[in-house]
Amino acid sequence: MQFKFGASLVCDDLAKLPGWVRTVEDSGFDVIGLTDSPTLYPETYVSGVIVAQNISRVRFGPRVTNPITRHPMVAASAIGALDGLSDGRALFGIGAGDSAAHTAGARPAPARSSSAVSLSKPPTRWRGWRRRACWCWRSAAPGSHAAC
User: Fold this and answer.
1) Other CB atoms within 10 Å distance of the CB of residue 129
2) Where are the domains of the chain?
3) Fewer CB within a 10 Å sphere, N or C end of the chain?
4) Is the peptide bond before 64 cis (omega within 30 degrees of 0)?
5) pLDDT tens-digit profile, the chain (148 residues)
6) Which residue in 131, 110, 127 sits closest to 119, CA to CA?
């Protein structure tokens, strides 16, 4: 079994981000997770552009985006652009959106219970979100276009 290691970066100063991500890559990490809480931190997709332009090996993306504060078409388009800019290294994670939702005055995406979301039977909102994001990519893989 081969382990991969990631670093989650919480960066509120975009001027520092290039140095941080180069340090992460130079230290041998495999993945960089970016915060997606727009009322707390700089825009995750702007951070993603900075990451794409400053590293060459590490995969990266929002840790995690959510169906409450992000429209699926906009998020799919943004991650597709990052994937193209980074030669296919962008990751796309979807979660409940705790901090993003709470700070926007909303509730996180509901799971069927307080337990983890089942990937085989995700809540309706998540299925719809995934379906709309995939519709945006239906003509090609996410990395082959810059916008939907």
Assistant:
1) 24
2) 6-144
3) N
4) yes
5) 889 999 999 999 999 999 999 999 999 999 999 999 988 999 999 999 999 999 999 999 998 888 788 888 888 889 989 999 999 999 988 877 788 877 778 787 776 433 334 344 445 555 666 666 666 666 444 443 333 3
6) 127
Enter the CATH code of domain 6-144.
Answer: 3.20.20.30
In one-letter notation, the amino acid at residue 49 is V
Buried b (16+ CB within 10 A) or exposed e, 43-70: ebbebbbbbbebbeebbbbbbbbbbbbb
Give this prediction's pTM.
0.76
The secondary structure of residue 30, as a DSSP letter, is S
